[in-house]
Amino acid sequence: MALWRLTEPLILASRSTARRDLLQAAAIPVEIAPADIDERAVAGSEGAALALDLAAAKALAAAAKAPGRLVLGADQTMSFGPDLIHKAATVAEAHEILGLLRGNTHHLHSAAALARDGKVLWRGVDRAELVMRWFDDHFLDLYLDAAGPSVTETVGGYRLEGLGIHLFERIVGDHATILGLPLLAVLAALRNLGALEG
């Protein structure tokens, strides 16, 4: 059964293999075309708003290079209380971030936007709550050694689909949202736009 109704694949303006895999598992044909934008120049003051603005900027940037095509932009931010947490530049910085998060609750905001021909057709965001368990410095060092430089590739220094699962005691939220895509909302938007059978 073919659910995708468009003649060309959805363009995903992201390098994220997790996002690509989520879409492909849902039978959405995907063409990868990462959008390189200056994230520091994008507005948005808090986690959810910033994620939405970044997702829209990425979708519009990729759509500008693909006239007539439907483009999905996505981004994820992490908030710890009133503060935004960014990707660590080094393993030492990841050590600091994880030391701050352990024993506490933080939130992930995963946003997506669909664009075509210079217009954002839809935007949405979902939030997940993650409670990191308390662990000592010895365990943190073991984790960082095992995870290696990959801790600088994701916000917060972990991948829940990998070794990062060992850091948590409780997670509240949709699994796809945690991986960086509000998938249920994206699928609903694609149906509403006539791109998916519904």
Sum this structure up briefly.
This is Nucleoside triphosphate pyrophosphatase. By secondary structure, this protein is an alpha/beta fold.
Walk me through what this model shows.
It is a single chain. The radius of gyration is 17 Å and the shape is elongated. It has one domain: Maf protein (Alpha-Beta Complex). The longest helix is centred in the N-terminal third of the chain and has 17 residues, at 47-63. Strands 1, 2, 3, 4, 5, 6 and 7 form a seven-stranded mixed β-sheet that branches. Strand 1, helix 1 and strand 2 form a beta-alpha-beta unit. By secondary structure, the chain is an alpha/beta fold. The chain has helices spanning 17-25, 47-63, 91-101, 137-147, 175-179, 183-192; strands at residues 10-12, 30-32, 71-80, 83-85, 105-116, 119-132, 168-172. The chain starts with 9 loop residues before the first strand and ends in a 6-residue tail after the last helix. Helix 3 (91-101) packs across helix 4. The chain has six helices and seven strands.
CATH topology: Maf protein
Q: Which spans have pLDDT < 50 for at least 5 consecutive residues?
A: none
Name of the CATH class? Alpha Beta
Number of strands: 7
Span of the ends, CA to CA: 12 Å
Assign the CATH architecture.
Answer: Alpha-Beta Complex
| Estimated share of beta-strand residues | 25-35%
The helix/strand series, from N terminus to C terminus, equals EHEHEEHEEHEHH
* Major sheet characteristics: 7 strands, mixed
Helix content: 25-40%
Radius of gyration: 17 Å
How many helices? 6
Q: Which quaternary structure do these chains form? A: single chain
Function: Nucleoside triphosphate pyrophosphatase. May have a dual role in cell division arrest and in preventing the incorporation of modified nucleotides into cellular nucleic acids.
Catalytic activity: a 2'-deoxyribonucleoside 5'-triphosphate + H2O = a 2'-deoxyribonucleoside 5'-phosphate + diphosphate + H(+); a ribonucleoside 5'-triphosphate + H2O = a ribonucleoside 5'-phosphate + diphosphate + H(+)
Main location: cytoplasm
GO molecular function, one term: nucleoside triphosphate diphosphatase activity
